[in-house]
Automatic annotation (TrEMBL):
GO-annotated cellular components: extracellular region
Entry keyword set: Hydrolase, Signal
A Pfam entry, by short name: Esterase_PHB
Name used for this protein in its record: Feruloyl esterase
GO molecular function annotations of the record: hydrolase activity
Organism the protein comes from: Streptacidiphilus pinicola
InterPro entries for this protein: AB_hydrolase_fold, Esterase_phb, Plant_Biomass_Hydrol_Est
NCBIfam families: esterase_phb
Length: 427
């Protein structure tokens, strides 16, 4: 799900899609469908709510809660990537698993091709991603419905998303700092980076050359008059992401540290599993306000780590890659795993932090082969478009015009890294 593609250019040329995903498995609804006006009794499966209030964004609401959920529990909102569905995110992101383990409810909003040709959340459209409007207003209505239904703690409502869902997450945090206590932006973009489809591709690929204060102003301008408290924000980014380039993580760091009024220099860093480097930015009280997780070699994806250990979660799939259970570390940062957020590593600890995983512990990967038109390769997130020319993600090998008439075979030799393999695949 991983790619954030916002706009199709035309039938033959499309601005690179923010998308993420692979063709999403059909919209199978897991669980019972709620009757109008009320959700069905929770049975431990994903459930659709057919009427949750005002819905100007034309979204569908799905929810999950463990049986016997106590009043006063947290609520998490989790947004899928382009061409994905709520079911995809429920199955693979790890949030349902963590809800069972730690006791909270999860809302999975779902958009559709009626809103965007690639079923992307409209993070780049100011008529849909601003306070009181469109999809943002629909998500807020879902939060109001779910907090009433589950008697959730209104001070512990959080939002997370991947790719286009991450772009919308950043916007929601800026739009509703009075609603969300924290957020997690996975392979996403800064709040209000783009305000039109034509500007979206530039945000995905290019440094916008804004100062931290200019980035911060985009958040402050989303809810004028709000002076805090601000949401605590986790940022996840793969270093080999050629759909949403790593510069976006730096810009997100600049944006949210500026909003918090803190330094862009990390209070501490440490190494985590899966080649992950965690950088922590403390508030004035010494508590983590912003955290940046950089995952070495990961492409455009949500990082998961299937398994039964307490720090593992999720399932691998298209745009769900096996590095680290990002959802677990995010939940820990938010303080909803039963413990306070981990203190920032000290400067001296950065050098002696837990070592990077050994080669034997590194994620294993079986090469995959894909033969398709350049247009289809770009749409699926295996290639990207620059000036109408398609380039393979990772290797940046030129494929020719981004259209339906040129076809290549791409081999994914590592997660998110593709090479041309027209002479035979696997090589």
């Amino acid at each position: 799900m991983p790619t954030l593609a916002p706009a199709l250019r035309s039938v033959l040329r499309r601005q690179r899609a923010l998308l993420a995903t692979v063709s999403a498995a059909a919209l199978a609804v897991v669980g019972l469908i709620a009757l109008p006006g009320a959700a069905t009794a929770n049975t431990g499966s994903l459930t659709q709510v057919s009427s949750f209030g005002s819905n100007p964004g034309n979204l569908a609401m799905y929810e999950y809660a463990p049986a016997g959920l106590a009043s006063g529990a947290p609520l998490v909102v989790a947004l899928h990537g382009c061409t994905q569905t709520a079911t995809d995110y429920y199955n693979d992101s790890g949030w349902a698993q963590l809800a069972d383990q730690y006791g909270f409810a999860v809302v999975f909003p779902q958009t559709s091709s009626a809103n965007n040709a690639l079923s992307c959340f409209s993070w780049f459209d100011s008529t849909r991603d601003t306070r009181g409007n469109g999809e943002a207003a629909s998500v807020k209505a879902m939060v109001d419905y779910a907090t009433g239904q589950y008697h959730s703690d209104s001070k512990r409502v959080f939002v997370t998303g991947l790719s286009a869902g991450a772009g919308m997450t950043a916007d929601l945090l800026a739009d509703y700092p009075d609603v969300f206590a924290g957020g997690s932006i996975d392979s996403g973009l800064p709040a209000q980076c783009a305000t039109s489809q034509s500007a979206a591709s530039g945000c995905q690929q290019n440094n916008q050359n804004l100062t931290p204060a200019q980035w911060g102003d985009k958040v402050r301008g989303s809810d004028p008059g709000w002076t805090g408290p601000w949401p605590r924000v986790a940022i996840w980014q793969g270093t080999a992401d050629y759909t949403v380039y790593p510069v976006n993580a730096t810009e997100l760091r600049d944006q949210w540290t500026n909003v918090w009024g803190i330094s862009q220099t990390a209070s501490g860093t440490q190494s985590l599993t899966g080649g992950t480097t965690e950088s922590v930015y403390d508030d004035a009280s010494g508590n983590p306000a912003v955290e940046l997780y950089s995952i070495s070699g990961m492409g455009h994806a949500l990082a998961v780590n299937p398994g039964s250990a307490s720090t593992q979660c999720g399932q691998t799939g298209a745009y769900f890659l096996n590095y680290i259970c990002s959802s677990y570390y995010t939940a820990q940062f938010w303080g909803i795993t039963g413990a306070s957020p981990s203190p920032s590593p000290s400067a001296s600890a950065s050098a002696s932090a837990s070592p990077s995983p050994s080669a034997s512990a590194s994620p294993t990967y079986t090469p995959s082969c894909y033969t398709a038109s350049n247009y289809a390769q770009v749409t699926a997130g295996r290639a990207h478009d620059v000036g109408g020319i398609a380039y393979a993600n990772g290797s940046n090998a030129g494929l020719g015009l981004d259209n339906l008439f040129y076809t290549h075979t791409l081999e994914e030799t590592a997660p998110g890294y593709y090479v041309i393999a027209d002479s035979g695949c696997p090589a």
